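dumping this here before i forget
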Amino acid sequence: CVYQEEDDQKFKGLKISKDLIEIGGEALKTNITTLGPLVLPFSEQLIFFATLVWRNLFGGGKSDKNSSSSKKPYIPNYKLAFEHFCVHAASKAILDELQKNLELSDKNMEASRMTLHRFGNTSSSSIWYELAYMEAKEKVKRGDRIWQLAFGSGFKCNSAVWRSMRRVAKPSSRNPWLDSINAYPASLN
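structure:
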C-alpha cells in the first residue's frame, strides 16, 4: 500500500494507495487481537470473549440496519492494561481515528499529539520521542506500563510493551524535549 515510484520528471517519491486505511485497520486489528490476551486483565478478556460468542450465536455479526452494536465489535479497554500510550504520530487524522477507536482520552494522546506538533511525522521513531516527552514531564512512575504502537509500510503494525523499573524523576540530558518541555502541552486549536 506504500510504494516508491518515479514521477514524470524522474523524481523518486512515495505513492500511497487508496486502500491504506483499510489495510492499516486490518494490521491494527491483528496486532491488538494478538496483544490483548497477553496484557488485558482476565475480566476484560472474558467480556471480549462473551461478546464474540453472543454475536456469533445470536446473529450480531450480520448486518442489521437498526442495530449499531452489530456493526462495531467490542473494543477492549486497554486503559486497564496500560498507564501510558505512545501511538505512532503519522498525522492528526490517524491520531484522531485511533483515539476514537481505542476510546483513549486526550491525556492518553498528549505525548503523541505534542510529538506531531513539535517534530512532525518522524515515522515510527515518533514513539521514542513520545516516551521522551513523558519522561521529560516526569509522568512515568515505577511500575507504570507503556504501550508503544507503531506502523510501517508494507503494511506493518508493531507493539512494544514496557514496565518502568523506577520513577523517572530527572530525564537524561540527551532528552530532545528538555529545551522546550515547559511550553507543552501546547494548544492545537
